[in-house]
Amino acid sequence: MAVTWGAVLRISLLLILLATIITALITLPIEKILKDFLIWIDQNLGPWGPLVLAVAYIPLTVLAVPASVLTLGGGYLFGLPLGFVADSIGATIGATAAFLLGRTIGRSYVISKLKDYPQFQAVAIAIQRSGFKIVLLLRLVPLLPFNMLNYLLSVTPVGIGEYMLASWLGMMPITFALVYVGTTLKDLSDVTHGWGEISTTRWVSIIYLIFL
Which end of the chain is more exposed for a tag (fewer CB within 10 A), N or C? Predict the structure, then answer.
């Protein structure tokens, strides 16, 4: 089978991206970097802070780095209404960026990984009949890793509009819960190690809000 230069270029770019992810996860103190980033937003950006916070989701989601620190930070810095809007939009554009990457230069790699997720085969078939509903359910009930799901969905027939809307709606409950937790933290440093300080009553409230 002939190999085109375009395919070689796509595979090379994908390998570089994977190497970058692995190196970053092993060598960089991701949580500390994100905490310092939140402090920088708080001290320097003023009204531009929510916008910059939302945009920051793009590289994190593409690199499959959990963004819960940003979500908590949004609640702490901007409160529930504004923090929720910034985090919700950020999570959606980040998921969309990963989706588009998987649909373009990363498509061959994503297809090769489908064998590692046999349960996704049935999902791919169901999406052909009802893409919006299936994506919404997958976001509400995380049967697959969130960051990998962005890429797996990219090789299904679901349209970009359906994907964005379903992802936005489906991620709302967990985003709201994390933003709420962020509003209860006493200090910005707690976004990385303050979970133990949250009272049982607050956890019950959070769970209630998610399943209400």
Answer: N
State which amino acid sits at residue 143.
L
Query: Residue 162: helix, strand or coil by DSSP?
Result: helix
Could you tell me if 32 and 192 are in contact, meaning their C-beta atoms sit under 8 angstroms apart?
yes
Pull the structure tokens for residue 111. 């297809």
What is residue 67's DSSP assignment?
-
Q: What's the token pair of residue 175? A: 């985003």
**The total number of structural domains that make up the chain:** 1
What's the pTM?
0.74
Of 105, 57, 52, 110, which is closest to residue 77 (Cα–Cα)? 52
Per-residue tokens: 141: 């009930």
In a domain, 18, yes or no: no
- Residues spanned by the domain of 156: 29-211
Q: How does DSSP classify residue 29?
A: -
d(CA 26, CA 171) in angstroms, rounded, equals 28
